[in-house]
Specification:
The chain is an alpha+beta fold. It has eight helices and twelve strands. It folds into two domains: about 140 residues, no CATH class; about 100 residues.
Length: about 260
């Protein structure tokens, strides 16, 4: 599917290419100057590589920084090289083709092939003299490598629980309402409680019907104990907690 086209620093790119440039800049800690964008047909010096999407020419700090700039571009998924005036009718710049862009021109696709084969992407077909560490990188692989993993669900700490209903509420201490909800979800997943009864618990708690809420939790504990062949007393003690913890679907830690 084609990417949305945007104007970025005065040049046309698609959003994928723009985001790749921004990611490379983040690695370097400074911005590139954009020299030529994509969808820019009719530039003889570019040999059609900029006719489609995914192509961009940039310039950073130059000199000794070129190798690091090319490495950053390659790391985020570009086939990229540093270009010099001796190589063609252009000034110093870095030429980059976004690997996997669905709108690459045929010339750009040929340059990606040259890059993977260790060549310089020019008519001379010379050897690639820049880092080869990121040849198999794509934008999608790079994003996956830097996207932080979702934090794990905090473990449910089970203490001894004796369900009691009173005028002042449901005595679940030290369990919180969230912890009880998670325990009831475990019960639903293991067949110890129906989804309807779990929904009823949420409803009666919302209406502060503490006695009914306590009975639902106590029955859920009894059902778990019955399934596990434990003493059925409706009290969530260390033995019941240890049984629940052994379940592969129970994300729990026992402090009985």
């Amino acid at each position: 599917m084609a990417e949305t086209r945007v104007t970025f620093r005065g040049h046309r790119l698609n959003t994928r290419t723009r985001d790749m440039v921004l990611a490379a800049e983040k690695i370097l800690g400074y911005q590139f100057d954009i020299i030529q964008g994509s969808y820019n047909s009719g530039v003889a010096a570019s040999a059609g590589t900029h006719d489609g999407g995914g192509a961009v020419d940039v310039w950073g700090k130059g000199g000794s920084h070129v190798a690091a700039e090319v490495a950053a571009l390659r790391k985020v998924g570009f086939a990229a090289w540093g270009r010099t005036p001796a190589q063609g009718p252009w000034g110093y710049h870095e030429h980059a083709i976004a690997i996997g862009d669905p709108e690459l021109s045929s010339g750009a696709r040929n340059q990606v092939t040259a890059y993977k084969n260790g060549r310089n992407g020019l008519a001379s077909n010379g050897r690639d003299t820049f880092t080869r560490a990121y040849v198999n990188n794509t934008w999608e692989k790079y994003k996956a490598s830097v996207t932080p993993a979702k934090p794990p669900v905090p473990p449910l700490v089970f203490h001894t629980l004796s369900v009691k209903a009173g005028a002042n509420g449901l005595a679940l201490s030290p369990w919180t309402k969230l912890e009880v909800e998670r325990f009831l979800s475990y019960c639903v997943q293991t067949g110890a409680l129906s989804r309807e009864n779990r929904g009823s618990w949420l409803n009666v708690v919302e209406h502060k019907n503490w006695e009914h809420a306590g009975l639902i939790v106590k029955q859920a504990v009894k059902n778990v104990q019955n399934k596990g062949g434990l003493k059925v007393d409706g009290i969530f003690g260390p033995v019941t907690a240890a049984y629940v913890t052994k379940s592969p679907i129970a994300n729990v830690i026992v402090n009985g």
